[in-house]
Amino acid sequence: MSSLMDTMNPHHSGTLRQHARILIASLVGTAVEFYDFYIYATAAALVIGPLFFPAQSAAARTLLAFMTFGLAFFARPVGAVVFGHFGDRVGRKSTLVASLLLMGGSTLAIAFLPTYTSAGAIAPLLLCLLRFGQGFGLGGEWGGASLLAVENAPPGWAARFGAAPQLGAPVGFLFANGLFLILSLALTPAAFASWGWRIPFLASAVLVGVGLWVRMNISETPVFRAALAAAPPPRVPLGALLRHHSGAVLAGTAGVVTCFAIFYLATTFALSFATTRLGYPIERFLAVQLIANFALAAGIVVAGIWADRTSPARVLALGAGLTMVIGLGFGSGLGSGSVVMVVLTLAAALFAMGLAYGPVGAWLPTLFPAPVRYSGISIAFNCGGIAGGALAPFAASWLALVGGVAYVGLFLTLAGAVTLAGVVLARPALTPRAAA
Question: Within a 10 A sphere around the Cβ of 3, how many other Cβ atoms?
């Protein structure tokens, strides 16, 4: 593994300042993306259903809101193909800037959407269009940010550098959750439902501006430059990827299912279920999730350090196994009626997610050679998002309806098993320059 990581990082003589700039660019960019994505997830749990699907029953509104949430996950593989094509042919940096612009623009536009009351059926149609834009942009974001970090990492630091984009998830969640918590405390429920929910979407413009400024001041990765100097890039990276590395795509897809399933069950589904079915006040449960979020950050940091000392695959497998166990008690803990038990349940789940999510940035790139790596890891990551993220809130809501809250965690147990299978079946590329 160490020799593979070393070959992934030629010319790693960058200064400490250059490395710091790369890590900040990776973290800030994905933090912006996850902030944008999660503010919609929170809005879907709280207000999207009544505002855009008022004619439906309460249960139907919740399911429809989660369907619009899931739509972006189906757009993500499409974005992964498009941005992966340019990331492998043109470069990591410029592709990352374009993905951030699309994601940020779609998020900002949601702030100005009319609701069903004022625009009728066109309102949910526009909402779905912008959700597709969000997912399309995010489809090219994570892969490029991970390669920016890993392909610039010094020897023996690939997993720790690769964990920097993953830290964007808890950071973005912290800003999104914190802002919604402030709004829920400062505004009446009527004011929040009327106009307050738009503020986080408007605020995204500031964060996107910061992300763009950081990314415009970085250079291309040495791995991409070396690959370009050695041979022209594939004319159609997707074709080369599917011809020679389809097995790696399937294994990589399975390998990321767990982290998506945990995140969106512990955040989006839990918030919706707790505030509608369990009777928790919105501000109290947002505070609970804010506390549990620190366990996610801790898990990512631990995973990055541990993966460099052992291997990313081993830590990822451990995170998947732990998820299978936690899934058996997740629903009961969530529905226990004890705030302390809920905090512990969510914190345990998110810590397990950190162990599964932290090493992914270093693990996935080992499955693909440099000429198709952006496409490979982006497609695998975002296809895994469909199975683990898009289905998670919907499946959990259905399980809670037909079997009760105790059955909700079974989705996590299944997701952990899928990820464990992906890690076991994965066959890392012998060298990053393997035939593409």
Answer: 10
d(CA 247, CA 249): 5
Closest CA to 389 of 28, 96, 34, 52: 34
Contacts of 289 (CB under 8 A, 6+ apart): 177, 266, 267, 270, 271, 346
**Are 161 and 152 a contacting pair, CB within 8 Å?**
yes
CA angle 116, 70, 183 (to 5 degrees): 60
Angle between helices 122-139 and 373-385 (to 10 degrees): 140
Contact 30, 142 (CB under 8 A): yes
Query: Helix axis angle, 237-255 relative to 373-385, nearest 10°?
Result: 40
Has residue 435 been placed in a domain? no
What is the radius of gyration, based on Cα positions, of the chain?
20
No. of helices (H) and no. of strands (E), the chain: 22, 0
Q: Phi then psi for 208, rounded to 5 degrees?
A: -65, -40
Q: What angle do CA 312, 251, 36 make, to 5 degrees?
A: 75
| Residue 102 structure tokens | 């699309």
**Residue 430 within a domain:** no
User: What total number of domains does the chain contain?
Assistant: 1
Q: How confident is the model at residue 432 (pLDDT cuts 50, 70, 90)?
A: very low
Residue with tokens 């944008």: 36
* CA-closest candidate to residue 158, choices 149, 148, 167: 149
Q: What is the mean pLDDT of the chain?
A: 86
Q: Which two tokens stand for residue 369?
A: 């050679």
The vertex-221 CA angle with 220 and 224, nearest 5°, equals: 100
Give the tokens for residue 123.
């309102």
Count other Cβ atoms within 10 Å, centred on residue 144. Answer: 32
- Whole-number Å distance between alpha carbons of 312 and 101: 31
CATH number at residue 127: 1.20.1250.20
Q: CA 136 to CA 382: how far, in whole Å?
A: 10
331-360: pLDDT as tens digits: 999 989 899 999 999 999 999 999 999 999
Q: Let me know if residue 250 belongs to a domain.
A: yes
Q: What is the DSSP letter of 234?
A: P
Residue 436, in any domain of the structure: no
Which pLDDT score, from 0 to 100, does residue 365 have? 94
User: Could you tell me which residues come within 8 angstroms of residue 353 by beta carbon, excluding any fewer than 6 positions away?
Assistant: 258, 259, 262, 263, 266, 296, 299, 319, 323
Q: Where are the beta strands (DSSP E) in 209-266?
A: none
Residue with tokens 């620190």, as numbered in its chain: 294
Owning domain of residue 368: 2-8+16-219+237-425
Beta carbons within 10 angstroms of residue 226's beta carbon: 16
DSSP assignment letter at 404: -
